[in-house]
Specification:
Length: 315
C-alpha cells in the first residue's frame, strides 16, 4: 500500500535530545512544561492518562496547544494505540482542534506498517477537511513489543510522515517477560547488556530510513546516576535523545545527547584540516594527517555528525 503523502514536508531534524512526558489531563503540568528547557514535549493521552480522564484530556491538550507558549519546542501528542477504542477520537479531536500548533503525533505500541498507514490516512483526511497543509504533521512510532521490533523496518518505511522510532522499554520488558522491574536497568542474573540487541535493531531501522532514534523513559526519577548511565548507553550508540519524566532529568539529558566541547572542537578541526589538505592537493588526495591521526572521507563523515549535533546544541 502506498502512502497518500509524498514528497515529505516533515522535518526529521527537529531537536529531540530530551523529550518531556507531560500527562495531558494535568493543566498545571501542561503550564509548567512550557518553561522547561526540554527540546520536545509530548502531551500524553496514553498511559499517563487514566481511562476516565482521556476524554477531558483531549480538550485540555487542545486548549494548552492553542493558548500556550511552546516556542522553541517540538510539540507532540501521544495518542492511544490502535488496539484500544480511543485512537480515532484522540486524533480527530487534537488535530481538528490544534492541528496547526502540532508537529507530530506519537503512536504507541506499533506492531506493523498497517497501523502507520491507518494513522497517515486519517491525518490526511483531517488536514484536507480543516484546510491544513497535507502531510506536515509527522509520526513518531513507539516500538514496545516483540511484534513491533520484528516489523520495525517496514514500520520505519511506512510513511513519509515518519520522523522517529521510539523505544518503549517498560512495555517492551513486560511484553517479552524480561525479569526486571526497574525500567532500563539490567535484569539480575544476566552478565551483559540485555538492551543492546533491541537498541541496535531500532537504531539500524531508524538510520536506514533517515529517521531519528529516541530512547524511552527511566522511571527512577530520584536517581541521577542511574539516568546518566542508561542515557549514556543509548547516546553512545548514536541515539538522538531520550524521554525525560521529571524536570531534574532535563539538563543532564541535554548534555548527554550533545557532544562534549572537546569532541566538537576536534570534529571541527578534522573538517577544516581535511578540506584544506584535499583542496591544496587539487582534489587528488583522499587522506591527510592531522597531528598523529590519519583522516579520510570516513573521518570527515564522522566529524560531520558530531559537528552537526554540536552546532544544534549551540557549542
Ligand atoms: C513507554 O511508553 C514505555 O513503555 O517504556
Ligand atoms: Mg509504553
Amino acid at each position: 500500500m502506498t502512502s497518500p503523502t509524498s514528497p515529505s514536508p516533515v522535518n526529521r531534524l527537529r531537536p529531540r535530545r530530551t523529550c518531556l512526558a507531560v500527562p495531558g489531563s494535568n493543566p498545571r503540568f501542561l503550564e509548567k512544561a512550557q518553561g522547561l528547557p526540554a527540546d520536545q514535549v509530548f502531551l500524553d493521552l496514553e498511559d499517563a492518562c487514566a481511562p476516565l480522564a482521556k476524554e477531558g484530556a483531549r480538550h485540555t491538550i487542545v486548549e494548552a496547544l492553542n493558548s500556550g507558549d511552546w516556542s522553541g519546542k517540538t510539540r507532540v501528542v501521544r495518542v492511544n494505540d490502535w488496539t484500544t477504542q480511543w485512537t480515532y477520537r484522540d486524533v480527530v479531536t487534537v488535530v481538528e482542534g490544534a492541528g496547526d500548533r502540532l508537529d507530530c503525533l506519537m503512536l504507541p505500541k506499533v506492531q506493523d506498517a498497517g497501523q502507520i498507514h491507518a494513522l497517515d490516512l486519517l491525518l490526511t483526511q483531517i488536514e484536507r477537511t480543516m484546510g491544513l497543509e497535507v502531510g506536515r504533521i509527522g509520526i513518531e512510532a513507539q516500538i514496545e513489543n516483540a511484534r513491533g521490533l520484528i516489523a520495525v523496518d517496514e514500520i520505519a518505511a511506512a510513511s513519509p510522515r515518519m520522523e522517529t522510532i521510539v523505544f518503549g522499554p517498560a512495555d517492551f520488558m513486560a511484553s517479552i517477560n524480561m525479569k526486571s522491574l526497574v525500567v532500563g536497568e539490567q535484569p539480575p542474573g544476566y552478565p551483559a547488556d540485555a538492551y543492546h540487541y533491541i537498541l541496535m535493531r531500532l537504531l539500524m531501522a531508524a538510520r536506514a530510513h533517515d529517521l531519528q532514534a529516541i530512547d524511552g523513559p527511566y522511571l527512577q526519577i530520584r536517581n541521577p546516576d542511574g539516568f546518566a548511565e542508561v542515557a549514556g548507553r543509548s547516546a553512545a550508540l548514536g541515539f538522538d535523545g531520550k524521554w525525560v519524566l521529571h524536570p531534574g532529568q532535563i539538563e543532564a539529558g541535554n548534555a548527554i545527547f550533545s557532544p562534549s566541547q572537546e569532541d566538537y572542537d576536534h570534529a571541527e578541526l578534522i573538517l577544516d584540516a581535511y578540506d584544506w589538505y584535499t583542496s591544496a592537493a587539487g582534489g587528488t588526495k583522499g587522506s591527510a594527517m592531522l597531528g598523529e591521526e590519519m583522516i579520510d572521507e570516513a573521518s570527515r563523515k564522522m566529524a560531520l555528525v558530531i559537528s552537526g549535533k554540536g552546532r544544534a546544541a549551540g557549542l
